[in-house]
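pasting for ref
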Amino acid sequence: MSFSRDQLIVSGALAGVTGLAWSYLLWMSDAMAGMGATGGISAITPYAWSLVDSLFLCLMWAVMMVGMMLPSAAPMTLLYAGMVRKAEQQGTPMPPTAAFVVGYLVVWSLFSLGATVIQWTLHEAALLSPMMVSQSSVLGGGLFILAGLYQLTPWKSVCLDHCRSPAHFFSQHWRHGKLGAFRMGLHHGAFCLGCCWALMGLLFVGGVMNLLWIAGMTIFVFLEKVLPVQVFGSRWRWMSGAGLILSGVVVFLT
């Protein structure tokens, strides 16, 4: 598959933004580990959150979602960039790729706001450690089982099919103009969220700042959404769902 100059530029921009997000997460993880080693971890997650704490954690979630989800959105984004280039050559300019990407990221920014509220609720209930890891076998096991059960639902299958088929997505949901490009980004983000919301709950199990756990989930999401259905098809969904449910049972019983 050949790439146009525009697509190469978009690829570089996506890689750069993703790299910056991961650099921030690495810095945050090191900072939290250092504060824990010096006994200052309570400064990260005080008993009573202030507005600044909430905004800081919402930003953390938003950056984490950029690092985790933007790579899996690359095929859809690059196809749009290719269409933009072709339209320009034909003298019928289209809205820039940025409009589509911004719409996509708005969905995950809203998710980050919701995740912050959930984290605050779990924190108030003393169900999270200072390093933002579940301290409850019921919570941890329940999140695993929820993610496993959702893998087996038709909603997961429908959302995953849209994410795996960029050309089909654009043929079904095309909108004109800058607002249309933004709306298509929102629409794609909604399907992406429909694929991954239950998996994102597992961040509270492995640790919201556990980079190995985050990286593993990022790879899982990327492969699930990018590889062809012949590789990650219904059999994979059933196998991964069963594995997650079994993991939940083990966590619940320990």
